[in-house]
Amino acid sequence: MHVSLKKIVLTLLLTTNSIAYSQTNWEVLTNAPAVNGRFDDVMFISPETGWLIHSQGRVYKTTDGGQSWSLIHVASGELFRSIVFADSLHGWIGSLAGPDFLLQTTDGGSNWSAVPNTKNLAITGICGFFAASDSVIYGVGRFDGNPHLIKTENKGQSWTSTDFSRYASTLVDCFFFNPDTGFVVGGSKTGVFPSTLNAVILQTYDGGLNWIERKVTARSGEWCWKISFANRNTGFVSIETNGFRGRSQHILKTVDGGLNWNELLVGSNFRIQGIGLVTPNLGWVGGRSQTFETTDGGASWDLTSFEWQNVNRFRFFGDTVGYAIGKKVYKFQNTNKPTSVISKTETPNDFRLLQNYPNPFNPTTTIAFQLKKKSTVSLKVFNTIGQTVKTLLNNSTQEAGYHEVQFDGATLPSGIYIYKIESENFTAVQKMLLIK
Question: Disulfide: which of 199, 230, 365, 400 matches 217 by Cβ 3.0-4.6 Å?
Fold first, then answer.
């Protein structure tokens, strides 16, 4: 029976990752800078290259996966809260205090300058950013009032601003699947921060022109803080509360791409802020004190024994590498390795398309497959709407055995790509993640 590529792509993007984790590790990056208070945000464009910001106007950079850090910028009087990069050179920082609420760099962070004419944006702080593409960037703020969404469609050459007071009283974070479809989270349009707000989630399908209210909680004195998706279907939103002693602490979860959100109880007598998912089942929620882990998609949560402190943000690259920041900098690595090794000199006993390595990648990766007998093979790469972006093999005769093909995504934008092998003997697909 013929199955269309679109159906295959949709299944790959929406199904739960079933990788078994025999060993998952968080470590404290001991060479990261020591600071008063905590780090406010972290941004990585690859597993190796990333930036940290601290509220006291400091920016740090690593190019070796957090093993070493350089202080690359200091701005007195600023209160840095959020950071985003579109690529290795172009980045932006959101501040909660003057003189500048939006800063930019075009050289990887060595030099920063105020974005001109920000007074016209009517913003008083940016709490969260998201790079929807290498040109389209969104930002939201602030957490305690004056809710605005800012957007650039030309990599920061110009910005627009939307007053969100008809939708919300506060905005804290945002997440986008693509330049048109995404979410903003914060506090409800009725109520006053912090005592009488309700948590609210809003969604757009047209790049922010119109918004749909997806969730408003019933409890008073709470607001959404961070949003995280493990895949196109499964996402979490953390809820911060006005005071926490004696209060139950909840998160919101979707399994249908954000159309519906259910409340899940995490615990009580602590304060939630940062939240992150490495798979639809495995994730963490942290905050001003304790950090909890779930291995069943949020149905239950266990207090972790790891050395967490004041976790505010998680960032993951696929299911292998991630970072979190709080009082210190933390790194996640999935050290689970395949238990079976395919010999390159022996004839395989089956047909198989293997997961590319490395994954995520930038910009090159290796795609491997095995054939148990001589076959005519086509191997192609597609984007998520089914368009062919690269033909690696086109009806090529391949001998039985193990084969590797190099794929170079240098000319492609960051995102999920599907690769498909077809022969007279079998067809298979896999997905991979390009991050620039």
Answer: 199
Q: What is the CATH number of domain 24-334?
A: 2.130.10.10
120 phi-psi bin (left φ>0, alpha ψ -120 to 50, beta other): alpha
133-158 confidence digits (pLDDT tens): 889 999 999 999 999 999 999 999 99
Q: What is the pLDDT of residue 346?
A: 53
The identity of residue 71, as a single letter, is L
Q: Report the C-alpha gap between 285 and 294 in whole angstroms.
A: 9
Pick the CATH number of 352-434 from 2.40.30.20, 2.60.40.1930, 3.30.160.60, 3.30.450.20: 2.60.40.1930
Q: Which DSSP symbol is given to 361?
A: B
pLDDT for 23: 39
Radius of gyration of the chain measured on its C-alpha atoms? 22
**Residue whose C-alpha is closest to residue 239's, from 213, 211, 219, 255:** 219
For residue 336, the model assigns a pLDDT of 54
Query: Are the beta carbons of 182 and 204 closer than 8 angstroms?
Result: yes
pLDDT, one tens digit per residue, over 269-282 is 778 999 999 889 99
What gap in Å lies between CA 228 and CA 253, rounded to an integer? 10
Report domain extents, the chain: 24-334, 352-434
Cβ contacts of 387 within 8 Å, gap of 6 or more: none
Domains 24-334 and 352-434 in one fold: no
Cα–Cα distance between 265 and 272 in angstroms, integer?
A: 11
- Exposure b/e, 221-231, CB count within 10 A at least 16 = b: bbbbbbbbbbb
Which three-class secondary structure state does DSSP give residue 24? strand
Which residues, at least 6 apart from 344, have a Cβ–Cβ distance to it below 8 Å? Answer: 401, 402
Backbone angles phi, psi at 313, to 5 degrees: -150, 140
Q: Amino acid identity of 324? A: A
> For residue 432, which of 334, 314, 353, 372 has the smallest C-alpha distance?
353
Please name the residues in contact with 340: beta carbons below 8 A apart, sequence gap of 6 or more. Answer: none
**pLDDT tier at 238, thresholds 50, 70, 90:** very high
Which residue from 353, 352, 423, 421 is spatially nearest to 391, judged by alpha carbons?
421
Strand partners, 152: 137
